[in-house]
Amino acid sequence: MTQEWTQQLVDRVGREVRRARTASSPPLSGQALSDRTAELGHPISRAVISDLETGRRRGLDVADLIVLAAALRISPVQLLFPELPRGSVDVLPGRPHESHDAVRWFAGETGLFASSGDWETGTGESAKVWTREELAPEIDRITVTRQWLRAIASMRGAQSQIKRALASEEPREQISTLEDLYDDARDRAEKLVRQMTELGMDVREGDPRV
Q: Can you give the pTM of this predicted structure?
């Protein structure tokens, strides 16, 4: 099953490479796509691209996946799970998910569904029960980073509103409310920085580009 699943993944990427290449405006030839990968510093030959698109390719490097996506100007995850939003895909062998769920898991937004056993129905029949697994909080760097970026964005938004309120001489009560929003966002950001530091993450000085 594992070998079959692996090849399905490679074939899926190949089909999406071909679809995206021909749907580009203007459409890209196989050689033009190959030239783009060379410009990105990781050349992938026209022959390799052709083998991938026609299902003759038996494997795919992560580096090739990333560079092909960049050359096509799409996200790498779209090559992996292109049947959005609700096309079924085996994220793992024998683990079907809708494609939008697969994308969310790959992006670190949520866990996968897993079978938690059988549930007895009122008729005496059994049915599979699927529950969503949680991402491991002690090693999950994606969620805490996303929360930190949201807190930074909230701080910026509150700062902008305070400046506008001061410039237009809004009532002091309204300005105080905005200052409270800024303080709350700053406190969240500082708490998250401490959490990120405990996870051994790279939290350096400077304003993130969000």
A: 0.84
Residue 8 is encoded by which pair of tokens?
Answer: 């399905």
Q: State the Cα–Cα distance between residues 57 and 65, nearest whole angstrom.
A: 13
Residue 152 phi/psi, 5° resolution?
-60, -45
Neighbours of 179 (CB within 10 A): 15
Would the CA dihedral through 61, 87, 84, 29 be positive or negative?
Answer: positive
Residue position matching structure tokens 């683990």: 95
Is the model's pLDDT at 210 over the cut of 60?
A: no
Residue type present at position 22: T
CA pair distance 28, 119, nearest whole angstrom: 51
Q: Cα–chain-centroid distance for residue 74?
A: 12
Instruction: Name the token pair of 124.
Output: 């005496």
